[in-house]
Amino acid sequence: MTSTIKTAAMLAIGDELLSGRTKDKNIGHLADLLTVAGIDLKEVRIVSDEEDAIVEALNALRSKYTYVFTSGGIGPTHDDITADAVSKAFAVPCLHDPDAMKLLGDMYAGRGLEFTEARQRMARMPEGSRHIPNPVSTAPGFIIGNVHVMAGVPQVFQAMMAHVIETLPAGQRVLSRSIACPFGEGDIGTALGAIQKAHPETSIGSYPHFDGRRFSTELIVRARDQSIVDAAAADVEAMIDAIRNEKDAAATRDLGTGEVA
User: Fold this and answer.
1) Separation between Cα atoms, residue 187 and residue 201, nearest integer Å
2) Angstrom distances, CA of residue 29 to CA of 141, 158, 160, 161, 251
3) Rounded distance, CA 64 to CA 10, Å?
C-alpha cells in the first residue's frame, strides 16, 4: 500500500459499441476492480475502429493518467486494428511477437486447425510489449508503457484483468460512509453544497430515491482519511437535524394558526 494517488482511464474500442449493437460490460467490471485496488478511474472514452481516433485518444489518456486500459480490437479480422494504433501511438513497429506466435500455433495445432494469416494477426503487438495472459482463448493481450491492451469479449477481458490487477501497486483506498437522509435533494441542495465546499478533500455523493409517496436521499461521503470522512459526515448529520427541526417548527406554527401544511 502506498499513499500515492493512482489514476486510470479506459479506452473502449469498437464500432459495435457506438452503434449500440454491443452493450459494454467491461467498464463496470473495471471500475469495481480499480475501486477495490484504490485506483481512481477518472475517465472512459469510446472510439470507433479508426486508427487516428484510437491514437489520438490513447496519447491523450496515457499522458494524463497513471494507467490506461483498453478493450477491443485485437482479434483476427480486418477491423481489429488496436495493435497497429497502439504501435503508432508509441512510434514503434507492430510485429508478430515470437512467443505469441508459438502460443497460438501450438493451440491451433492441438485443435487440428490451420494457423491462418488471419489467426496470426492475434500475435501482432508493438515491439517491446509484455504479454497479458489469456487463459480463456490463448491469444494474449499486451502491455506497453502504462497502457494495458485487452480483448473486448467480456469473459476474456475479465480473465485478463484478473491477472493485470494483481501486478499493479495498490493505491490509497477511498473510505466511505453512507448517511440516510429523509429529505429530497430540493430540501438539502444548498446546504449540502456548502458542506462540500467546507470539506474540499471529500467527495459527497447524493442519490435520490422515490418510494411512490415521498422523496429521500442517500448521501455518501468519500475521502482517503477517516477523520476527514467523519468530520464531513458530522456536518451532514447536523444539516439533516437542522432541516428536520425547521420542518417540525413550521408544522407546529401551521397547526397553531389552523393551516394545513
Assistant:
1) 24
2) 17, 7, 12, 9, 47
3) 12
Mean pLDDT of 89-100: 98
Average pLDDT value over all residues in the chain = 93
pLDDT score for 3: 52
CA gap 39, 174 in Å, rounded: 9
The per-residue pLDDT for 253 is 80
- How large is the angle between the packed helices 154-167 and 26-37, nearest 10 degrees? 20
CA atoms within 13 A on the CB side of 253: 6
Angle at 203 between CA 201 and CA 208, to 5 degrees: 160
Phi and psi of 167, rounded to 5°?
A: -95, -10
Give pLDDT tens digits for 177-202. 999 999 999 999 999 999 999 999 99
Q: Give residue for cell 401551521.
A: 254
Given a contact cutoff of 8 angstroms between Cβ atoms, the answer to whether 40 and 5 are in contact is yes
Distance between CA atoms of residues 35 and 174, nearest Å = 8
> What integer pLDDT is reported at residue 212 of this predicted model?
87
